[in-house]
């Protein structure tokens, strides 16, 4: 065992010395592996960062959450001209579903309306995102309040002039003042501030709640009307935990068909969009991105591997005389083999480490410039990068190392003279 350890140590020392004596050649050989590892790990790190951001943005929502509307999240067999004729969901349908569909833990009706300006005293905040919703929105989104409370069912049904502010809006209007109980002006009306949301940070799925205000949907329905197509109404439903979701969806579709008076031979003129389907769609996209990025990086890595193999053949040619002398002095074939293999593996590993280092530096820089979007370099990707570089070094060096180990000492000394 000690003999093998000594062989490994001496082989490693020879390899490091060879790389040190040929700095320019070593540097040029590193470029291919560095670019390959940088490409692969860079793409994987970007995809992992995107997945983390998506999961963070959707963490407040349950995968069983349903969004009922006249549009589909994904592809559908229904032609576009027919989908355009579908009616919007209505507030009355929201009330019907809340009362007549079993196993509903929470439901909310919401509208999409243009941004507005909101005012307190002489302070004005423009471009504020308005979220007109019902009281069930609080439980569906699992909202966290920094101060105050959310509006209740009675306030929601009656359309009371109460409002919940996002963190940025509260800061812009009130600064260090306590906003609870203060009166703000919106739509030319006075609203009483009853709550402030906790700071959320940026979101990749539309505007952050920090720049949003939430108010009862019936307030906005009085202003925009109940049948405004531009308001893009939707019903969000959260089934109770443990419910059979396909069965729940079937009951929901059946009840809504009955309410709309659809005949047996007519297709649903609405879409039951499952949030889990959306997350699966995102996973497929990120998986495809990883695969494509991996193949691109793999080709770059193979080019680097060919570069290392070429350099190793040159190295064997240059050191033929030295190999002959080593073998004449009693060096075994495995010593010569390990010597060149170590040289190839070390070369590739250094290139891999440089590539990983570049990715790490870029993730730090991008995280600083992109605010709350955090780029991550996981331990799995680091291991994958190092393993890939070592494997490429091993593959690229095996043939030159084998050729060097099989040289005849007399011929090697004669050839090198």
UniProtKB/TrEMBL annotation:
Family annotation (InterPro entries): ABC3_permease_C (IPR003838), MacB_PCD (IPR025857), Macrolide_Exporter_MacB (IPR050250)
Domain ABC3 transporter permease C-terminal: start-end pairs: 295-409
Main location: membrane
Pfam families, sorted: FtsX, MacB_PCD
Localization of this protein: Cell membrane
Recorded GO CC terms: plasma membrane
A GO molecular-function annotation: transmembrane transporter activity
Transmembrane segments: 27-47, 292-314, 335-362, 382-404
Domain MacB-like periplasmic core: 26-253
Keywords attached to this entry: Cell membrane, Membrane, Transmembrane, Transmembrane helix
Membrane topology type: Multi-pass membrane protein
PANTHER family per UniProt: ABC TRANSPORTER PERMEASE, MEMBRANE COMPONENT OF TRANSPORTER-RELATED
Name of this chain's protein: ABC transporter permease
Source species taxonomy: Bacteria, Pseudomonadati, Bacteroidota, Flavobacteriia, Flavobacteriales
